[in-house]
Every structure is written in C-alpha cells, then in structure tokens.
Amino acid sequence: MKIKNICCIGAGYVGGPTMAVIAQKNPDITVTVVDINEKRIAAWNSNNFDELPIYEPGLSDVVKETRGRNLFFSIDIKSAIINSEMIFISVNTPTKTSGEGKGFAADLKYVELCANQIAEISTTDKIVVEKSTVPVRTSEKIKKILNSKNKYIDFQILSNPEFLAEGTAVRDLQIPDRVIIGGDNTKKGNQAIESLVKIYSSWVPRKNILTTNLWSSELSKLTANAFLAQRISSINSLSELCEETGADIEEVSKAIGMDSRIGNSFLKTSVGFGGSCFQKDILNLVYIARSIGLEKVANYWEQILIINAHQRDRFANKINALINKESLNKNVCIFGWSFKKDTNDTRESAAIYVANNLIKSNIYLNVYDPKVKRSQIYFDLNYINKNDAKNKRHVLVYDRHIDCIYQTNIIAILTEWDEFKEYDWEKIYDKMSKPAYVFDGRNVLEKEELESIGFNYIGLGR
Ligand code: NAD
Ligand code: UGA
Description:
This protein is an alpha/beta fold. The relative contact order is 0.09. The chain has 18 helices and 14 strands. The strands form three sheets. A six-stranded parallel β-sheet has the order 3-2-1-4-5-6, with helices on both faces. The protein has a six-stranded parallel β-sheet with strand order 11-10-9-12-13-14. A two-stranded parallel sheet has the order 7-8. The longest helix is centred in the middle third of the chain and has 32 residues, at about 215-245. It has helices spanning about 15-25, 40-45, 60-65, 75-80, 110-120, 140-150, 170-175, 185-200, 215-245, 250-255, 280-290, 295-325, 350-360, 375-385, 390-395, 420, 425-430, 445-455, and strands spanning about 5-10, 30-35, 70-75, 85-90, 125-130, 155-160, 180, 210, 330-335, 365-370, 395, 410-415, 435-440, 455-460. Strand 4, helix 5 and strand 5 form a beta-alpha-beta unit. The site of uridine-5'-diphosphate-glucuronic acid has 21 residues, from helix 9.
C-alpha cells in the first residue's frame, strides 16, 4: 500500500517526537498527530516553540521545519483516521490500578479504545501500527476488536515498538540502533511490513531495520527495558557493597565496562532509576511470567524493582540519620526533580520517593529543578502521599538554585543536570549553615574539589 497520509493517535513523549522525525524525513507524507487532550494539542501548535508540551533537545527545530508543511497536530481524531492509510497507536499503557492484574499488568484500555474507534470510523483498508509498549500478544486483541467490529475492511496489524530515551529522543530517532517491525507472515502482512520499512528507509540503513513476527517484536520491547534496568540495579546493588568495603563504584564500573562482552553503558550508579517505563514494563513482564506459572522467572525480574526501591530508601535514610545524629537543621535542599537530565518528565522520578521519605520524617525541603514546574512537583507528591496540606507546608519550590540553600546544612543532588557542575560551589558553601554536606545521588560532582571548599561530600558507592 502506498502511504500518503499517516495518523498517529497520542501526542505524548513518543507520538510527538516520533512523528516529527517521520515527517522531517518523509516530506511527501502528511502526518497528523491527534489527541483527546486539547491543551496538549494547543501546546504543540503554539507559536512560541519554547512552549511545546515536551522539552527535548533539538525537538523544536524539527517541529519548526515540519509543522504546517507535512506535520499537523489536531483534536479531530475522526478525520485523521478516515484520511490515512496508516495509523500509529501511541497512547499510554500505564500499570493497572484496579481489576485483574492490579499493580502489575499493563492497562490496555486506551489502546483498546483506539482500536474500537478505528474500527468504527474506517471506510478504507488500514495498516494499524502498535507503537505503544504492550504485553506480548496484544496485537491479537487489537486484531480481534478491529475485525469483529468492521468486517468489510482489511486491517493489517504491525508492531513497531519505540526505543527512544527521553533527553536524547531526537538523536535516538534520527540515528536509531535498530528499528523493529513485526507483522504477520502472510502476503498482506508482508506488504504491510514493507510499507513501514519504506518509511523508515528514508533515513535508517536497511540493515538496521529488523523484521520479525508480531510476538517477537512485542516481547523484544519489554525485555530490552528489563535488561537496561537490570544493569542499573546490578550496579546500584554493588554501590552499597562498595560503601561497606572501601571499593569505589566508579572504578568498579569502569573496570567491568571495559570488558567488551559487558560494555560500559547503563553502568552509572544512581539514587535509583525512574521514568515512565522501566518500572511499568518490568511489572508487566513479572505479571506475564507469573500468570503462566513461571514463578522463578517472575521473582528474578521483580528483584530489579526491589533493589531500585532499596537504593532510593537507603539514600533518604542516610540523610535522615545524619540530621538526627548531628542535630542539623531539619531543612534539606534538593537539586533536581526530573527522572534524568534534559527532560521535564518526572514520572517515577527517584526524587519523588526520596522527598516523600524525608517529608514523612518531618524534614522540610527546598527544591530547585531547571525544567520542572512548581505545580508538577506538588502534583507528584500529592499523587504519592495524598497529603496536599503537608506537602505545601513542607516543600518550597524555587526558581533559582541559589535561593534554596539558606538555613540548610544539606544539599541532595537527585538529577544529573549539567548545570550543577558549573555552579559556584564556594558561594553556595558560604551561604549554607555549617557543617555543610552534599549528598550526591548521581556522583556528578568532584569530591576533592568540594572537600577542599569545606563541604562534607557523600557520594554513592565510594
Ligand atoms: P504520554 O502519556 O506522554 O502520551 C500518551 C498520549 O495519548 C496522551 O497525550 C493521551 O492524552 C493520549 N491518549 C490516550 N488515549 C487516547 C485516545 N483514546 N485517543 C487519543 N489520544 C489518547 O505517553 P508516552 O510517554 O508518549 O508513551 C506512549 C507509549 O509509548 C507507552 O506505551 C510507553 O510505554 C511507550 N514508550 C514511551 C517512551 C518514553 O520515553 N516516554 C519510550 C518508548 C516507548
Ligand atoms: C528508557 C530506555 O533507555 C529506552 O530505550 C526506552 O525506549 C524507554 O525507556 C521507554 O521505553 O520508555 P528513558 O527511561 O527515557 O529510556 O531513559 P534512560 O536513559 O533509559 O534512563 C532511565 C533511568 O535510568 C533514569 O532515571 C536514569 O537516570 C537512570 N539511569 C540510566 C541510571 O541510573 N544509570 C544509568 O547508567 C543509566
């Protein structure tokens, strides 16, 4: 099928940037991104490119180049579905909060709603692409919905999981390690696969486009995230061992990573991984394994999350213990709220859990993040502890890092923003209460430099 019009349902962290790059690389295809969230669509259409709903380095340039040319953002979902030959489903698939699988399984209600809508509205054949991360065999469910509701139209289902990481989304999309396209091994299935291969081939070398069956593609996405998170929990578990033995986790990590069989990425110790997907995708993997009776497999993967929670808790507990032991001000300054640098996304950020733990211990917090809005910080805390009044009393959010530090003995670094390394740490030290401590939850600052200023430096695993 020749693709002239693409519709993408879901204008979020994946739908927005992915479609912007597809439009940039395929100027002859019209790409329309639709969403039920009117505010989000308005922000994508904003004349002020600083107000796009997602902060990603390089994204505003791609949107500037394509928006109005062959990239459109709209709330008219119906027209976009009718007018396109290919429809991406890129909606959220959060962990279920009720019903069967509560707390573990992925909630597919948004994906299913999209499938229903596509079936009801379509008047011509469509290729439906699963872009959202879903449990293995979800495409079977989508196919069932599409075919049972609309018997006159041929729907081909493809799985095309997304591997971009936030903060580097544009680069990851423009130079992906690989693109995976799963589809049915039938004549029409293969034709559908080829239609999508052609779109990616505009910029991705053919050898980096892997075509598979539907189930392999779906499972590859879940397991890729589980493998990445597993490395972080492995190194984080060793950071505690280093603290007890005098080894230095940065040296251990370098030594391990130089083995070419292991490789050096995802071995950076941290206060714990966050982000919208690692936890949800591992919970989902655990659920799938457990629901087919693979208890040992489920327990194995679940351990990644147990170590991650432990790493966040022990970081907060250390701060709390020091305050009590040394009778310090019950005021802690937090630098960094997003789950990693170069994004304004805070979903599952370690900062939320550390802050909540400290608030529970009656500690007051002054928070600064270069990109996260004040309202988001309160939203995150209210979501986890449902105690708006206490959060308002205990947390102050500042626009400038330098205003955060009065009457505090402790700064905790929770995100690895580059600007933290550029600060005038002597000036910060002068303004703080003494003794002054830095708890570096990302090991981004220079221990010797801070100690020479007068700080007590407490990093991870060293
Ligand atoms: P998101 O929450 O940022 O965006 C999803 C959007 O879908 C929202 O704007 C929501 O309003 C919209 N939506 C939901 N139901 C809809 C409907 N019926 N009709 C129209 N719009 C609807 O989510 P995201 O971060 O973009 O993630 C989307 C999917 O991609 C998830 O399955 C996620 O696991 C996966 N993924 C995310 C990332 C990432 O870095 N965030 C990376 C790879 C894969
Ligand atoms: C991750 C994957 O890297 C993407 O391939 C995947 O597409 C995406 O999840 C998804 O499915 O949503 P993302 O969560 O955006 O991307 O960012 P990462 O760079 O993977 O970082 C995740 C978390 O791990 C962050 O909190 C980060 O600070 C932490 N991290 C990362 C470490 O603590 N140590 C490391 O060495 C690397």
